[in-house]
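Reminder: ligand-aware prediction takes two inputs, not one.
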Amino acid sequence: MHSWLVPTMLLCLKRIPFLMNLVPVAYSEIRRDLLAGKRTCVEIVQGHLDRISKYNGQLNAFLTVYDQEAITRACEIDARIQTGQAGALAGMVVGIKDLLCYEDHPSQAGSQILDGFQSTFSATAVQRLLDADAIIIGRQNCDEFGMGSTNENSAFGPVLNYANPAHVAGGSSGGSAVAVQAGMCQVSLGTDTGGSIRMPAAFCGIMGLKPTYGRVSRWGLIAYASSFDTIGPMAHHLEDLALVLDVIEGLDAYDSTLVSDTVIDYQPKKRIAYIKEMVEHPSLQTEIKDAFFERVEQLKAAGFEVVSVNFPYIDQLLPTYYVLTTAEASSNLARFDGVKYGHRADGTKDLMDMYKKTRDEAFGEEVKRRIMLGTFVLSADYYDAYYTKAQQVRRLIQEKTLEILADADFIISPTTSSTAYKLGEKTLDPLQMYLGDLFTVQANITGLPAISIPMGQDSAGLSMGFQVTGRAFDEKGLLDFSKIVQ
Ligand code: GLN
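Here is what comes back for the chain with glutamine:
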């Protein structure tokens, strides 16, 4: 080995320990080894548990680790592999965000209000993973009810970024992102209402897919904003995202918003669009912009036509998102009243007092802010001015976005305008925090599928993300194109 290589390698080792000591392989490779008898599920689970015990104390990605249970299940699946009955995801080690219900396990949505709550059923997506012989290793930290962009709004404390623990993981699926980033599980199941899969994926240098609204059942997803919420996978490899999506998607009698006719029939044009107002936005970090345009040049060299388009509603994206999601949240979160489940305040004088004290004690600041905002925009005097107006603007945003996608196969952008913030950097200013969602909310307002894939690192060694948004139900096209970008 050249002598100069040694110091260079040591430097890398210091900055990204994980990539040097455990390059994670895709599930297909693990499966090959499992079926050939070269490895066992027990060994694989143990490997992840070892990493959890090494890193989770500091990073705070998992709230509960199902160690014994995961080992027991691994033994059962090893036996099934022996008899040739392995399910499609046999031995895949998965972590689930704390917004997803898992029968007889705690689900708290990162909140004190669900203290002590154990779910009596499993989310459809979780159940389908179990049916395919995936192994659920634990419950992952997140912003309370998915409300946040840094995972600092969790009742269980923030999640730290594995690449640099002075920085946030991104949110709201921060625990899910860091668990994959640090090799504590192969795949995480996150949720995305306004970017909560893609943003932490970008901050942690992994992949995250938000499926089309109507593709994956929301049954068992603790609701934040029901017309925006989606469930999707996060992993190091595109092929793992595809495998998991294939297992969790599809009709479910418990979710009437699922779409049955998802066959798409359209000829790719090899034309890609980016939104001028996004790439010229003053909040965009220069290094991210440069990395993005490097990718644009590479796409052009690969034979794609890349066009710049105007999007006149850039300034309406965040207000529309925050009016509608807070309205839906104020209604969805009304069910947490101390009567049915979770926390109940002590020493209250009557029912009203109990409701008030319970909600005051157990909801965090950000959740309270949003409930109040949502209640205000739904109130009789202001309904038309805010809620109805935002619904109308949502339609305009949808129409304009579809117009762009009628002429281009995909819309590309950076996933976020900056790399992971320092811990505490944005917590005092909610508006600054909301601004971080500028590039991701469009896919939720429109219901379209979108993915974040790694786009290298900035000079501080923090990850940057490249986002691709596709047409409704064209996840296959999205994943194929992502392979090219990668
Ligand atoms: N940061 C956004 C919010 O706080 C997105 C959250 C999400 O996707 N769950 O609403």
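The pocket of glutamine is lined by residues 146-149, 172, 192-196, 224, 325, 437 (CB under 6 Å). The CA atoms of residues 102 and 126 lie 7 Å apart. We will return to this case in the review session.
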